[in-house]
Design goal:
- By secondary structure, this protein is of the alpha/beta class.
- The protein has one domain (25-323): TIM Barrel, CATH 3.20.20.
- It has eleven helices and twelve strands.
- The chain has helices at 15-20, 58-70, 98-108, 141-157, 171-181, 202-207, 228-239, 254-263, 274-285, 291-305, 315-323; strands at 31-37, 44-47, 50-56, 75-80, 114-119, 132-134, 137-139, 161-164, 188-195, 244-248, 268-272, 309-312.
- α3 runs parallel beside α4 and α4 (141-157) crosses α5.
- The protein is globular and about 70 Å long.
- The protein binds ligand PBG.
- Ligand PBG is lined by residues 118, 120, 122, 130, 165, 201, 204-205, 210, 273-274.
């Protein structure tokens, strides 16, 4: 029996009905807001390719954190720009570098935010790669020690969650051992497990000044054509002690997100990356797309595909729209 007995439109007749039967709720608490901290005082500079997103010194960053907290957003993830870069990326674990000071500042202000830090070397190395470089190659094992040191310094500053995004093999285990060996057994690891080598990180690399100075990241980030490999990466990260896993970018990888969601029991995050944000902002700026509707549709789609939480530059706008 079908039409006219069945009329799916009956349940779409009013917003009340639609909201009653809505399958995928979206809430401010689903979001983590990425933020960029820089050295100095009273610095607040908009990233040209990411309207609404700023590189800020710790004082200004803290002001924005209060706003983020008030909007009901669950937390922030921090990226830092160092005073100076070097071959090893040594400011990644410097006690007084912007990320470490920013973490201390939010914690001291007792804001109700989950404080996550991105653990990587690319913002800190002169060559812009995510690990140690020798003869033009990114070395895996020597990078682990440095990443673990960076994660440990974030934990010392007070981070709740450290999120390695470098894609070196074995980094989750190395970080877990460093944390546990130094009394930080309670600090959680969110692994960027299925992180693809993507063109959609372009605007972020302006924001974090982290573009590789030679070559690309194909020897460590994943090939966009692979999804079975994503499940393998996820499994390995969980074996090494990851508490949560993530798929990144989100939009071109919703199938991967769904597959990961089905294969694990831990929370799964998705990173709605810079390029995904900039596309909407640029098209909206030209009047070609309705920013609010497009962003909400994207965020809903990412949740529907299986993300428990979303790292997104739309977080503040979306939280405001949800509160209206
Ligand atoms: C660092 C890192 C990157 C992003 C998050 N962590 C850039 C990259 O891998 O090149 C991208 C985030 C975004 O595009 O919003 N490795």
């Amino acid at each position: 029996m079908s039409f006219p007995t069945h009329r799916p439109r009956r349940l779409r007749r009013s917003e009340r009905l639609r909201s009653l039967v809505r399958e995928t709720p979206l809430a401010a608490g689903d979001f983590i807001y990425p933020m960029f901290v820089v050295p100095g005082k009273r610095v607040r500079e908009e990233v040209p390719s990411m309207p609404g997103i700023y590189q800020q010194s710790v004082d200004r960053f803290l002001e924005e954190c209060r706003e983020v907290e008030q909007l009901g957003i669950s937390g922030i993830i921090l990226f830092g720009l160092p005073e100076k870069k070097d071959e090893q990326g040594s400011e990644a674990w410097a006690k007084d570098a912007p990320v470490q000071r920013a973490v201390e500042a939010v914690k001291k202000a007792k804001l109700d935010l989950v404080v996550m830090t991105d653990v990587c070397l690319c913002e800190y190395t002169s060559h812009g790669h995510c690990g140690v470089v020798e003869n033009g190659e990114v070395l895996n094992d020597p990078s682990l020690e440095l990443l673990a040191q960076a994660a440990l310094s974030h934990a010392r500053a007070g981070a709740d969650v450290v999120a390695p995004s470098d894609m070196m093999d074995g980094r989750v285990g190395a970080i877990r051992r460093a944390l546990d060996g130094n009394g930080f057994g309670d600090v959680a690891i969110l692994a960027y497990s299925a992180k693809y080598c993507s063109a959609f990180y372009g605007p972020f690399r302006d924001a974090a000044q982290s573009a590789p100075q030679f070559g690309d990241r194909r020897s460590y980030q994943m090939d966009p054509a692979n999804s079975r490999e994503a499940l393998r990466e996820v499994r390995l990260d969980l074996e090494e002690g990851a508490d949560m896993v993530m798929v990144k970018p989100a939009l071109p990888y919703l199938d991967v997100l769904r597959a990961v969601r089905r294969s694990v029991n831990v929370p799964v995050g998705a990173y709605n990356v810079s390029g995904e944000y900039s596309m909407i902002k640029a098209a909206a700026g030209k009047g070609w797309i309705d920013e609010r509707r497009a962003a909400m549709e994207v965020l809903t789609g990412i949740r529907r595909a299986g993300a428990d939480f979303i790292l997104t530059y739309h977080a503040k706008d979306a939280a405001r729209w949800l509160a209206e």
